[in-house]
Amino acid sequence: MAPQTVNIGVVGLGRMGKRHVHTLVNRTPRATVVAVCTNMPHELEWARNNAEYKEFDIAIYEKYEDMLNHPGIQAVWVSTSTDVHAIQTKLGIQKGLHVMCEKPLSIHLDESQEVIDLAEKHPDLKVMAAFSRRFDASYRDAAKKVLVERTIGKPYMVRSQTCDLLDTTGFFVRYATRNGGIFVDCAIHDIDLTLWFLDNPVPKACWGTGTLQHHPELAASDDVDNAVGVVEFWGGKVAYYHCSRTQAAGHDVSTEITGTEGKISVNLVPRANNVIVNDKRGMTHEVQEEYWQRFEYAFETEANEFIGSIVNDSPVPVPLKMGQKVMQIARALQSALWSGEVSKWNEKGELIYEGKKETGMNGHAK
Amino acid sequence: MAPQTVNIGVVGLGRMGKRHVHTLVNRTPRATVVAVCTNMPHELEWARNNAEYKEFDIAIYEKYEDMLNHPGIQAVWVSTSTDVHAIQTKLGIQKGLHVMCEKPLSIHLDESQEVIDLAEKHPDLKVMAAFSRRFDASYRDAAKKVLVERTIGKPYMVRSQTCDLLDTTGFFVRYATRNGGIFVDCAIHDIDLTLWFLDNPVPKACWGTGTLQHHPELAASDDVDNAVGVVEFWGGKVAYYHCSRTQAAGHDVSTEITGTEGKISVNLVPRANNVIVNDKRGMTHEVQEEYWQRFEYAFETEANEFIGSIVNDSPVPVPLKMGQKVMQIARALQSALWSGEVSKWNEKGELIYEGKKETGMNGHAK
Amino acid sequence: MAPQTVNIGVVGLGRMGKRHVHTLVNRTPRATVVAVCTNMPHELEWARNNAEYKEFDIAIYEKYEDMLNHPGIQAVWVSTSTDVHAIQTKLGIQKGLHVMCEKPLSIHLDESQEVIDLAEKHPDLKVMAAFSRRFDASYRDAAKKVLVERTIGKPYMVRSQTCDLLDTTGFFVRYATRNGGIFVDCAIHDIDLTLWFLDNPVPKACWGTGTLQHHPELAASDDVDNAVGVVEFWGGKVAYYHCSRTQAAGHDVSTEITGTEGKISVNLVPRANNVIVNDKRGMTHEVQEEYWQRFEYAFETEANEFIGSIVNDSPVPVPLKMGQKVMQIARALQSALWSGEVSKWNEKGELIYEGKKETGMNGHAK
Amino acid sequence: MAPQTVNIGVVGLGRMGKRHVHTLVNRTPRATVVAVCTNMPHELEWARNNAEYKEFDIAIYEKYEDMLNHPGIQAVWVSTSTDVHAIQTKLGIQKGLHVMCEKPLSIHLDESQEVIDLAEKHPDLKVMAAFSRRFDASYRDAAKKVLVERTIGKPYMVRSQTCDLLDTTGFFVRYATRNGGIFVDCAIHDIDLTLWFLDNPVPKACWGTGTLQHHPELAASDDVDNAVGVVEFWGGKVAYYHCSRTQAAGHDVSTEITGTEGKISVNLVPRANNVIVNDKRGMTHEVQEEYWQRFEYAFETEANEFIGSIVNDSPVPVPLKMGQKVMQIARALQSALWSGEVSKWNEKGELIYEGKKETGMNGHAK
Predict the structure, then answer these.
(1) Does the pTM exceed 0.90?
(2) Burial (CB count within 10 angstroms: exposed 0-12, middle 13-18, buried 19+), residue D123
(3) Were both Cys, which of A12, A30, C213, D72 would link to A17 (CB 3.0–4.6 Å)?
(4) Between C2 and D158, where is the model more confident?
(5) What are the tens digits of pLDDT across the range D244-269?
(6) C interface mutation test: which of D190, D238, D341 has the most C CBs within 10 A?
(7) Where are the annotated coiled coils located (chains A, B, C, D) (predicted)?
(8) Which chains contact C through at least 3 pairs of Cβ atoms less than 8 Å apart?
(9) Orientation angle between helical segments C322-339 and C188-197, nearest 10 degrees
(10) pLDDT grade for C363, boundaries at 50, 70 and 90
């Protein structure tokens, strides 16, 4: 008996696309990568010279539509820039393929709703939102303690930060013009964790602000490189976030969940590994350079669980619509950042007020 | 030659008053505690039975005015509840005594301004605001690194929290009705640290929210037991805070200062001492029970520097008016918490808008 | 072009054998597990009911000789008890197969020398000693810093401990009668690290002692459940070790390398993951339960590098004879423990004195 | 009623003598420093120019005998070099004064026995051995957990290290010729902690070795700058130590106590304060420079408890003879280091064998 495998194609060969291929080839025994696709010339060239791709007989496409027609393909992994996530996911579904879609589905809520609606019409297909932190061993342990073992009583507060290493190459800035603003691009994992740990609370009000410290060119797209936001939920729950593109030591992503009887923190002190150097300066440990080093094995779990849901015809671990709730809050924080005004929801979770970008009193946005 | 000492009286023998007497007797060689004062019967009885007070010949008064007339008294330490700080400080100044006044001077900005004005008319007297964290060795080391050595480049963000151990006796709740709200009572050290580390920035806007988790009786005084606030400053600086009365493990006070080239954290992982226990549960260290355990030696430094400023006729280390700026921000956060609206300042630091308490949309405040 | 893979069989399906199969199937894309072998009835039954083994079409053998004749088999992984490592390795080599052999090769130096000699006669075969810590990311980072970047100057001291969680099932005790004593069974990774980090020093003298705390039945095999040993090397280098079978919190394996200009520690504070729980007791993190949790990804690297050395016909990362040097020191520590006397080597590394087991003055050994 | 105070003189104004005066003046309210004494010209000059000494009216003597005649003197604190501890303690006792004597009393066991005998003839005098770690809050918390709360079951093993910052001035080397060797000078606190935490066990055998890394001139006095030793006690208890003069980061003093149900560590990760710096290198905290920074407040407790035992006529917290047991073990480790042979005791704790220095096989000693 041979193992039941899934033939998968990966679209997008940026930093993460390459890594997803690596994970699928090396650590996902039931996945067979049959094709990759990119329209970026330097990525194409890189792929064509890649020994591993040759060895594992991976076809290389320039056009997404062509890859969708690759013989025997069963699933696609969408790892492109945010602006084409929705259309590529829709095309995959329409071709009858299972789809893993990197977050966020879209920065336009109506566009992402269309995809969700389309997916619901194809219940036989596994269409999944890639909220990778939900597959991390530490977050899962925290969730078990908070939600199952009730270690901290009733959870009511989340502090979470996504602080990236300063990218002096400016790569991310070029990319940032497409991504909907810092809260949309950076905080959505933190918001997702909040909904998870606080058991799907309904937002009530939020506010945020930010600053530009290293990337003044972001002002042209009304963006900042550091932002802080607070979200109040109905029922006395609160979350607050720090997003940063400019950390000196590395990727500093930590989360604290406070409950009536305790607090759980995840990665409060980020460490690249178990090594400490004692020298004249004191005791030093390194910090992971970026989220890959922090979440490498979460991506392995994510890939295996997605492939497993196809092989076993079981529900995907993170439904596509989860991303929609997260995006609503991220957008409202972004509105607050741009306008300086509080965004408000009613008890049904319907957004009843948000400031207009043009009303912006904040120097960073105007 | 005998050491030049200062005869000092302490008013207020609550938890902190007792501790200040202890510090003055045991660790402040140039101070001589000649008197204490309290109008609380159980504190009076405690003091009258105190062997150390007898041994060190400390007079015990019920009336503050009487203590001010104690023969040879040169200074007073005001350690009562906030509502009498201002009047007791004024009376001390008017008697020609040096005064150390616990924070905050008053929750009413006009009242505290009166005291500041009075103190300025008596430049020969040392009148000092007791912002104790400024005397803590770790915060001083952080300040040296941030402000002198410029270790982290230009500082632009502060995260700071004052999270107290849950007080199941309800003591603090009874006290809380006098203290002006959680941001005024808890966040003012965090705000003071912000002004210190960000080099006296001018506030621009702030918002905050909160929740009641353990002390529903606080609703009667429009207060919460956990609050989160964000302050934006002119010039692209940001601070955010968490105040809590309900921590399970102990006194969890940490501060992070982020700059363009690094970040400094103070007490990110609070530890009662150097002991770790390994047992079936894992590795555990205790957390300081309250701010005394955390700041015991800061109080020693504070006391010696106050006495030193008298002996040497040098400026007090923390001028009285510093408290005024801090209080303005704390009050504006409190207004935001009560009203749900953003408080705003102009570039001169004049408050130009704050929501009214009555407009409060927040369930916790109404 | 299909990936070049290696057909491998695993002998021994104890805790580690199962895990090696898991790693080879899930994280070693160039390995194909074609067979497993065990003569333990309960392991056989477990294997025959294993869904993954069926899915991946893994043949199950009772007799090692039969597995060696499995069609197409190219390599074996010897993961049995120590007493058959040598003979199984020899049989594999004689069949013309590549062999990965769990440490130690043998507790008898002459027997292991025979295997080394045999392997040297088959330079075409990859025969490797499984010193798994050499594949751990943290130890590799430490080695890079110590040996390449010279971060700590000249290294001269190693402290290393292998402290296992107390096994209340008594499993290990039954196993221990075959394994040559605590220094041979537990310290050989620590000794291997010492030779690595101190650049193959020549031993000069060693002494050790121990105690029986939880497993008095070990006295029957002259063993202890905790031991401490010191090794002096020619040229002023020193190493010292703690081996324990009885830790309460988990698997506590740490190593410190001290040099003339600094110190590097690996895993000084063992952590199961990034989660910390704050509750009434303080702040607690869990410890890995056993070496699998600590070294899971080291085993992945080890498996891929062994398979890689076959595919690429490159030298194995840890030569078989490395184990021989390590075993000599472990045996000398064991002699010191048994006899209470110092074991001594000359400058060529020839053992010139060791106490006899019968002379033992130590209560634990007699 | 005036506080009951003790007039005390301090002999020795080296690093620690100065600090003891500082502690006695600033943090020991019942002590009055009336005199200091030193025969070192530069210390005399420093003292004569010291403003605090003038202010507190502290007499300065060149001759110890003269200080003993200072009017009203009641106690002396002996803080000189080890070679005169015994004689100065005896002279103090003979003058009818209470004496605090820095460790060790003497490196000659017969000399220290004489002092102990003399002290026992003067039961009215408080004569105390200054084992300062017994006054440290963390060690006391560990002792409460180990000995009173039995947190770790039955304690059976101690690992303890006293590792000092490299002293590039060479000061200590000049001092070292008087101090009896590295185990006598450095390990006696660790041995004292062992006797405390393991409840006064009887030694059975010990061995040690060392190396010279930074101070080759120590070879002239048969000393090393790093040493490791193991002590086996009757009843299955074990302790092992690392002494170092050559650490890069700072004063690294940690202790682990292992019991049948857990382990307690003290200062496993040494930290100068609560500050962590994040920068390009990673996360760094400083280490205390020397034992003063680590034990500053232990010295305060020690001073107050010594003075308290005089004021209250209560037993001294650490009897003089405790030092004698400690010294016996330190000397036996030193013999092992010098001779390369195991030192042995019988069950009564009588030393029955130690190698002769001349037999030394160890290159570092010969």
Answers:
(1) yes
(2) exposed
(3) A12
(4) D158
(5) 999 999 999 999 999 999 999 999 99
(6) D238
(7) none
(8) A, B, D
(9) 120
(10) very low
Tens digits of residue pLDDT in A57-87: 999 999 999 999 999 999 999 999 999 999 9
Mutate which of C151, C274, C294 to test chain A, going by most A C-beta atoms within 10 A?
A: C274
Residue B365 pLDDT greater than 60, yes or no: no
Instruction: Confirm or reject contact between D198 and chain C (CB < 8 A).
Output: no
- Residue C274 touches partner B, C-beta closer than 8 Å: no
Residue type, D159: R
Contacts with D291 from chain B: Cβ below 8 Å: none
CATH of segment(s) D134-294+324-359: 3.30.360.10
Q: The tokens of D197 are what?
A: 């935490």
- pLDDT by residue (tens digit) across A222-275? 899 999 999 999 999 999 999 999 999 999 999 999 999 999 999 999 999 999
B107 Cβ contact list (under 8 Å, min separation 6): B82, B83, B179, B180, B184, B327, B331
Radius of gyration for the alpha carbons in chain D, expressed in angstroms and rounded? 21
Task: Name chain D contacts of C262, Cβ cutoff 8 Å.
Answer: 248-249
- Where in chain C are all domains bearing CATH 3.30.360.10? 134-294+324-359
D269–C242 C-beta distance less than 8 A: no
Q: Are C70 and C45 in contact (CB under 8 A)?
A: no
Q: Name the 3-class secondary structure at B141.
A: helix
Residue A273 forms contact with C (CB below 8 Å): yes
* Structure tokens belonging to residue C189: 């990774």
For residues B102 and B16, the answer to whether their CB atoms sit within 8 Å is yes
**pLDDT at C172 exceeding the cut of 90:** no
Spatial contact of C109 and C331, defined as CB atoms under 8 Å apart: yes
Specify the range with the lowest mean pLDDT, choosing from B18-22, B188-192, B213-217.
B213-217
Reported as a single tens digit per residue, the pLDDT across B231-252 is: 999 999 999 999 999 999 999 9
C26 touches chain A (CB under 8 A): yes
| Averaged pLDDT, groups of 10, chain A, 366 residues long | 88 96 97 97 97 95 98 97 95 98 91 96 95 97 98 98 91 72 94 97 98 90 94 98 96 97 98 97 96 95 97 94 92 96 97 80 44
Beta bridge partners of D278: B263, D283
The Cα of C257 is separated from the nearest Cα of chain A by a number of Å equal to: 10
ipTM: 0.94
Count of alpha carbons within 13 Å of A34, Cβ hemisphere only? 16
Tell if the CB–CB gap between B142 and D275 is shorter than 8 Å: yes
- Phi, psi at residue D116, to the nearest 5°? -60, -45
- In three-state secondary structure terms, C60 is strand
Residue C241 near chain D (CB below 8 Å): no
In DSSP terms, D61 is beta-bridged to D37
Residue in B340, B310, B309 with CA at minimum distance from that of residue B227: B340
Contact D283 A279 (CB under 8 A): no
Quote the CA–CA distance of D30 and D304 in Å, as a whole number: 8
The verdict on a CB contact (< 8 Å) between A262 and B269 is no
The owner of tokens 């007339």 is: B69
Class for domain B134-291+324-359, per CATH?
A: alpha beta
In CATH, the number for domain D6-125 is: 3.40.50.720
Q: Which residues contact C91 (CB under 8 A, 6 or more apart)?
A: C64, C65, C68
Measured between CB atoms, which of D250, D272, D281 is closest to A284?
D281
End-to-end CA distance of chain B: 63
Write out the residue limits of the CATH 3.40.50.720 domain(s) in chain B: 6-125
